[in-house]
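Repro:
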Amino acid sequence: MTLRSSTTNVSRVSLIGCPCSVGSYVAGQDLAPAAHRSSGLGRTLAQMGLEVRDHGDTPAQVWRPDRESPRAQNVSEVVAGLELLIERIDPILASGDTMLVVGGNCLIALAVVVGLRRLGAGTPGLLYVDRHYDMNTPQSTNDGALDWMGLAHGLALPGAVDAVVAALGEPPSSSRSRWAGSA
């Protein structure tokens, strides 16, 4: 069976993996890029008529307990991972390719938004599908998993970790005011 792309303007997809669980609850999400590749992601995209450019993975970052900062665990590793992913996706986006970032960690969506903003193609939108809103901060939960706090950091909500907010750059003010106004 040959699959065809349902999009009319996409002919090439640049794939990058982000094997990261460092901002999560436990290790395991870091295995997502390898699992998708081994299950035939590239082959399926090619069967859809797309040219696939696989840019490999960012270095793996595996969760570990952070007893020194239990309410915002592994901040420096999370920031380093975000900065590296942003650096890796910038040239892919500049090439004009459609980009597919594969990972299991919600924070990678924020790095993609930063890359899109840097591209200068207007204000990017984000469709965020998750089992919860990721609007927590270290002050609003005892959990400590920064992955569960992604949107709060992307919008620089009060209580967000300064180092994570700084890695993401200026938050989209219109979105921030809409979120703040709807609470």
